[in-house]
């Protein structure tokens, strides 16, 4: 799946990121100095006037990424722009789901893991057992978007309690019609589409709505591919599904986004509402996890530096919400301090990104 909007982007300005490289290298215990990211091994830079780079770098190699299909559009957009100035570096992006991605990452099979939820303690332990240390970086903010078919004229706003009525384990085989969710809804079959069990989207949604990840009814149509969920809801008047806001933005002409009442009234998944956490409890950070040893390789250093420098612009281009400006110095401090491990895994669903970084 390519990036979420067909935008003819000019080459994105690259900032060499010597400080970032030095910080992450120091956190890894590597003896590599900051100059390893400059000169012949550095991506091409731009002039002070922000003119596009015209000379390709001499870097070569592979940077492997797998994991969340939700984060994939951002990583693919970054990889696409990075390739323009680093044609010798291949950056394939897989989409095996957050859980599937962490299995590969903690086995040492990938360099970077895309994640639409924080790494779990059990996954962190797997990484530790295999000698995989990592740096955790938020790259964008998502609002899990509940969607219905365009012909659905009744479900304009749903409370968290109503979503729980639909999705709780107790609903299995029992809540099968719309009027069981709310009496004034039509007597029509309720068709549910959602993320598969290996997806971080599934974990985050079930924790936010049902109180615990992995706790959900199972008689729905699951998929690790958000595009399949999109098509399922598009094809059924009585369907409801959920996925990241970027997928809704791309399909807004054929789907309706349901406003969510988390206790303070109906709130739409707009950029402002997602960024501030007002779209609660379904606002969440999107993250990447970087293998510390992989970062010691010059091509991985260059790609990660490029990712961090350009994440806000590209996240917005593919339909997600850029991190708030207040988050940037906190991210810089996190990188400068060389902090490894996760500080996100105990976060409550819907917590604003700035609060998480603090």
UniProtKB/TrEMBL annotation:
Residues 1-21 form the signal peptide. Keywords: Phosphate transport, Signal, Transport. Residues 28-62 are annotated as: Disordered. InterPro entries: PBP_domain (IPR024370), Phos-bd (IPR011862), Phosphate_ABC_transporter (IPR050811). It comes from the Bacteria. This is Phosphate-binding protein. SUPFAM superfamilies: Periplasmic binding protein-like II (SSF53850). Residues 28-58 have a biased composition (Low complexity). The lineage of its organism: Bacteria, Bacillati, Cyanobacteriota, Cyanophyceae, Pseudanabaenales. It comes from Pseudanabaena mucicola FACHB-723. It holds the Pfam family PBP_like_2. Residues 54-310 form the PBP domain. Involved in the system for phosphate transport across the cytoplasmic membrane.
């Amino acid at each position: 799946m390519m990036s979420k909007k067909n935008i003819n982007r000019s080459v994105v300005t690259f900032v060499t990121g010597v400080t970032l490289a030095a910080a992450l290298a120091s956190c890894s215990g590597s003896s590599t100095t900051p100059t390893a990211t400059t000169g012949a091994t550095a991506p091409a830079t731009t002039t002070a006037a922000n003119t596009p780079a015209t000379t390709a770098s001499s870097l070569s190699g592979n940077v492997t990424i797998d994991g969340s299909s939700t984060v994939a559009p951002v990583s693919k957009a970054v990889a696409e722009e990075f390739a323009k100035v680093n044609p010798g570096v291949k950056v394939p992006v897989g989409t095996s789901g957050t859980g599937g991605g962490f299995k590969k990452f903690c086995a040492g099979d990938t360099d970077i893991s895309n994640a639409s939820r924080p790494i779990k303690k059990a996954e962190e332990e797997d990484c530790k057992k295999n000698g995989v240390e990592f740096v955790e970086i938020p790259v964008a903010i998502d609002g899990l978007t509940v969607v219905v078919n365009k012909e659905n004229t009744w479900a304009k706003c749903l409370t968290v309690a109503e979503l729980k009525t639909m999705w709780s384990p107790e609903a299995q085989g029992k809540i099968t019609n719309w009027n069981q969710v709310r009496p004034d809804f039509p007597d029509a079959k309720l068709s549910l589409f959602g993320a598969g069990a290996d997806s971080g989207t599934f974990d985050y949604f079930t924790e936010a709505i049902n109180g615990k990840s992995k706790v959900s009814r199972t008689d729905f149509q699951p998929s690790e591919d958000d595009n399949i969920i999109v098509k399922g809801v598009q094809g059924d008047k009585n369907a409801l599904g959920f996925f990241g806001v970027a997928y809704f933005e791309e399909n807004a002409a054929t789907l309706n986004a349901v406003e969510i009442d988390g206790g303070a009234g109906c709130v739409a998944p707009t950029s402002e509402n997602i960024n501030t956490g007002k779209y609660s409890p379904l606002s969440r950070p999107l993250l990447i996890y970087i293998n510390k040893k992989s970062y010691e390789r010059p091509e991985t250093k260059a790609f990660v530096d490029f990712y961090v420098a350009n994440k806000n612009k590209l996240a917005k281009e593919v339909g997600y919400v850029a991190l708030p400006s207040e988050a940037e110095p906190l991210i810089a401090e996190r990188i400068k301090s060389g902090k490894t491990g996760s500080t996100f895994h105990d976060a409550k669903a819907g917590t604003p990104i700035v609060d998480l970084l603090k």
